[in-house]
Amino acid sequence: MTTASTTKPLFEVAGLNVRFGTGPGEVHAVRDAAFSLDAGRCLAIVGESGSGKSALARSLLGLAGPTARVTADRLRVAGHEAREFGPREWRAVRGRRVGLVAQDALVALDPLRPVGKEIAEPLLTHRVVPRREAGARVLALLERVGVPEPAERARAYVHQLSGGLRQRALIASAIAAEPGVLIADEPTTALDASVQSRVLALLGELKESGTGLLLISHDLAVVEALADEVAVMKDGRIVESGPVGRVLEAPEHPYTKSLLAAIPGSGPRRERTVVAPGDGSAPLLDVSGVTKVFKGARGSRRTAVDEVSFALRPGEALGLVGESGSGKSTLARMVLGLAAPDGGTVELGGAPWSGLRERDRRERRHTVQLVPQDPLSAFDPRWSVARIVGEALATAGVARAERRERTVRLLKQVGLSVEHLERRPLALSGGQRQRVAVARALAPSPRLLVCDEPVSALDVSVQAQVLDLLRSLQEELGLATLFISHDLAVVREVCARVLVMKDGRIVESGPVERVFAEPAHPYTRALLEAVPRRARAAVERL
Amino acid sequence: MSVEQAVRAGAPIAAVRRARRGRVRPGVLAAAVLLGLILLAALAPSLLAHGSPTDTDPVHALQAPGGAHWFGTDQLGRDVFARVVHGTRYSLAIGAAATGAGVGLAVVWGLAAALSGRFGDAVLMRAADALLALPGLLLALMVVLIAGKGVLGTTIAVAVGTAPGFARVVRAQALVVRRSGYVESAVALGVPRPLIVLRHVLPNTLGPLLVLATVTLGASISTGAALSYLGLGAQPPTPEWGAMLTEGQGFLEQAWWIALFPGLLLVSTVLAVTVVGRHAQARAEGRAAS
Amino acid sequence: MTPPHISAAVRAVTARAGAAVLVVWGAATCAFLALHLIPGDPVSAIVGSNALVGAEQREEIRHHYGLDRSPLVQYGAYLKQLATGELGDSYQLQQPVSSLLADQIGPTAQLALWSSLVAVVLAATVTVLTSGRSRWPRRVSSAVELLVVSTPSFWLGIMLLTVFSFRLGWLPVSDSGDARSLVLPVITLALPIAAVLTQVMREGLLGALEQPFSLTARSRGLAEHTVRSRHALRHAALPALTLTGWFTGTLLGGAVVVENVFARSGIGRITLQAVSDRDLPVVQGVVALSAVVFVLVGAVVELLYVVVDPRLRKGTGVAAA
Question: Quick count: other Cβ atoms within 10 Å of Cβ A497?
Fold first, then answer.
């Protein structure tokens, strides 16, 4: 890889401000940012959504958007002062000096063009190679990023490639014109854990070969794997920066500390009253040999859940871990009585639950309640919080006169107050919505709570609060919980026992500590790699 | 607006659209005022035009627009202004009644399809497909054959012409609602099915539809006038705009004003209704999306 | 590999053809049902106001057109006719409906295809010209589009006639057989279609420019107009394609209003005539023709869709990692 100026920093930024809009509606997205990046190094900018990290990254390409106003004391890109750049100068930089790897290749590459053409585009735009040699160069690039059968893949379209391959193709298009620096904006967020590590390894190789990396991420595990330096961003301001080891192991700023502490699995393990298996109590939920098959177009069949059996005792917290498409949500729907199994049975409280007519099931529906992944879509958008929770109370037979008082009590229980009663779901924050969802689930006094990815849509710091809430409810109310997540660390926070699911089957099960410490199945090990070790160790030392 | 949103608003139009949503634009205001005037003309035409729409005056036939007759007179000496103003109620009434009836029919049709089993859904939707395969006007013409010429027949025809398309929208929306998280939550709570339909499915299906109906009102007014123009709707000497255009077409060479003004009023009405309707639609979508 | 591939393709084609037949059959059945709901004796429609026709002759006519048979038998005969492309005889014009339609499809097709072509070219041009960074062209264009969409075609046609034929005398008032007489009808039909298409295409183009792949394209150093023409335009074409197909199908079924305004011959003209005279076989024929045209146009659109969007091509499922 040719890097024109190895001595000069690739980015040199001081006093960078990015503002959107004017007047009272103005958003000051980036405030007074300063940093520099050298060849062969990786600077990670860490922050939660809305912290301004993407605006910062785009302003380095002159792509913050026509409504953005970018000002800076110094803004040197690849050795040139970019403050006075016009469109032509910016175009000369983009792709040639600075490449961009966006979040999700499925949408970041043009879905209507073959991947090869997309990769060739920067080559031809910057006239790196003559048109007739572009094809060969594309194949070499695909090979370089580790795509097997490059000739075939170059003719394929994005949707025909798997998640890992398309992200590699996106990286290939970003490095095609040999830029000295790559901006990687959440480069692995859309990927499953097992694929994630391979893409990170590829980015690591690029760094080794001399490319500078500006990594934008909310995920400390990714940062830990790649970065040399870290800048932590909050509300548009860089609140702390330094070498990755120092920042993650000895954070100074309270926000960095809270970010680290909020990582699931990073806190000290809490003792909790766990119903020991085999203590004689009859299982609350008994799933035996359950199978669900989906019929696709043209007679194709897909087995989403394959002969799954497990039992859940009253008060027990059971985790169910797997990646997207592993069948865990389908399993949850069958436990909730929202989908009928094609084989096997579900029993609830010792009586049949699956295979009933809806009318016969209705009376016991209140015993199992759901905390959904996306609470916004689980609320009628026209209804206020009072009405949403009230409907749940009404089905549990609470008289109209008592509902308001009961609703307020439930809201308090989940950490909300009277002022939220008349709000509509849209007027609540993500964390508040999830709390309302929990309140609604608690309203009919259930014995089992099914939580389907209850925190995956939330920012890390909010995640921790919601997990705390769920944990304390378990202890206070003695609720049994079936906790579904793709994230083993999150499950470890709330559960005593865990099932690992892959392709519709349970591949491993056991106490969460054992699975965490000595994973038996290779798939579990791959899942575990997604948990940031150093950060976790650091917090435990605090 | 969060930073993230602002960043995503990369292309200029997004920002423009967002900014527009906040306040009522002057164009919308003008359209609303115009619509108010049109409604006044429909409800109380004699407040705006003193002359009679049907009194003939052969001596002053085919007079160009001027002080005595703002919009001129037609071949029988009738005041075009009075006729145009008095004609407002026909077009508005046909359009509104047809849209209302069409939406009503479509709601029953679409909901029945969405909520009945696979077989009922297939039959109802294939029927809608078959009717959608015909140009709307052809369908309307067939209905006129059955329901007869005249204002009532035209209204029914326009209603039936709009129903199959609407029924598809109702069904699609009802299916989205039925599969939504909140209906699923209600099922998991044990809310009985009829209550779910009443509380969640119906209101959330109808909301978007009513807005769509406002936008379609303009088209219904236009189609109603077209049927009258073709001689199937209101019959002369009724001062209906479409019928007036048919009469005026015979005098294009000598008296362009007979055909100009009814059409101008028709365009203004459709325009005003469309602008106000689209504004309502944008507001509704903005509420749902932001 | 080949046998399953072919059988899948055959199955898909069969399914498509089956659906098409179903639509045509459905439309024809609706027409049959509808026309049998018409109050009054069809024989009266056949003889018209000819008071000299006696009861015996009426029975003879009834028998000649098969109207004395039970509705179910009539329906069977009607479907059989339909399947053979035979559409019966017109009540009024004393000639087979099929030959009547065949005579009229020419002028209608000419009008419909020209209008669609002009509309598409006009819409694409306006879209590309007004989707730049500057807001003013877009605002002006939007206002004009709204005005045009709100203008009923018969009035637009009448006004064009007034100005260009009566006032200026540039173009003929009615169908004179030469190409000049096609100009005003085509404009009348194309303008509103172009306005709708422009709105849809612009929305699509601006939407595509907000997509992540446009950001990626810009990050490669592409100029804004290249991003627009190479990436975004194709995405904008997809919804416009459906709409164009729909418009063309509708026009081929007869531009009733415009053919009347400009006194042109064509399917729309005989449709209106048939509706006025209650000439049921002709109405049924037009319905069948429209449904067939709709299905054919739909198939063409679907084909074009696959050409534009690789995601719809057969055998392009997600490959394994």
Answer: 21
Same-domain pairing of A337 and A460: yes
* Two structure tokens written together for A93: 């930089």
Residue A112 sits at the chain C interface (C-beta within 8 Å) = yes
Q: Is residue A477 part of a domain?
A: yes
C263: amino acid identity, one letter: A
CA distance C317 to chain A (A): 6
pLDDT tens track for C46-89: 776 666 677 787 788 778 777 778 888 888 888 888 888 777 88
* Position A139, amino acid: L
A374 and A462 inside one domain: yes
Instruction: Label residue B90 exposed, middle or buried (CB < 10 Å: 0-12, 13-18, 19+).
Output: buried
Alpha-carbon Rg for chain B in angstroms: 23
Distance, in Å, from the CA atom of C295 to the CA atom of A311, rounded to the nearest integer, reads 55
Q: What CA–CA distance (Å, rounded) separates A479 from A456? A: 21
Amino acid identity for residue B150 in this structure: G
Instruction: Please tell me if residue C102 touches chain B, with a CB cutoff of 8 Å.
Output: no
Report yes or no on A458 lying in a domain.
yes
Question: Would A275 be classed as within a structural domain?
Answer: no
Assess contact for C274 and C282: CB atoms under 8 A.
yes
Instruction: Find the residue in B nearest to C215 (Cα).
Output: B10
Who's near C167: CB < 8 A, 6+ residues apart? B256
Please give the order of strands across the beta sheet that includes A285-295.
Answer: A301-312, A285-295, A343-348, A351-352
pLDDT tens figures, A339-358 = 889 989 999 988 899 888 88
How many domains are there within chain A?
Answer: 3
Other C-beta atoms lying within 10 Å of the C-beta of residue C28: 23
- Give the closest residue to C223 by CA, choosing from C138, C136, C133: C133
Which of C213, C221, C309 is nearest residue A107 as measured by Cβ atoms? C213
Given a contact cutoff of 8 angstroms between Cβ atoms, the answer to whether C281 and C18 are in contact is no
Q: Which residues have C-beta within 8 Å of that of residue A518, sequence separation ≥ 6? A: none
Q: What is the CATH number of the domain that holds A459?
A: 3.40.50.300
Q: How far is CA C165 from the centre of its chain?
A: 27
Residue found under tokens 């009102």: B217
- Out of A262, A277, A301, a domain closes at A262
Distance CA A397, CA A199 (A): 53
- CATH for the C97-312 domain, from 1.10.3720.10, 1.10.10.60, 2.40.50.140, 3.90.1150.10: 1.10.3720.10
Task: Give yes or no for a contact between A37 and A214, defined as CB atoms under 8 angstroms apart.
Answer: yes
A400 occurs within a structural domain: no
In chain C, what are the domain boundaries?
Answer: 3-83, 97-312
**Mutant choice from A112, A117, A214 vs C, greatest count of C C-beta within 10 A:** A112
Q: What is the largest CA-CA distance in chain B?
A: 79
Peptide bond just before B239 cis, omega within 30 deg: no
Name the CA dihedral angle for B137, B142, B143, B146, rounded to a multiple of 10 degrees: 160
Nearest CB among A236, A365, A444 relative to B3 is that of A236
Token output for C152: 């009923």
Q: Read off the pLDDT of residues C158-216 as tens digits, 9 standing for 90 and up.
A: 889 888 888 788 888 776 677 788 899 999 999 999 999 998 888 888 888 888 899 99
Distance (Å, rounded) from C-alpha A41 to C-alpha A43? 7
Identify the pLDDT of residue B159: 92
Range of the domain at A52: 1-97+182-190+209-262
Question: pLDDT (tens digit, 9 = 90+) per residue, A44-98?
Answer: 999 877 788 888 999 999 988 877 889 999 999 988 888 888 889 999 999 999 9
Looking at the DSSP bridge assignments, the partners of residue A497 are: A318, A511
Q: Which of B25, B28, B134 to substitute to test the interface with C, most C CBs within 10 Å?
A: B134
3-state secondary structure A480-528: EEEEEECCHHHHHHHCCEEEEEECCEEEEEEEHHHHHHCCCCHHHHHHH
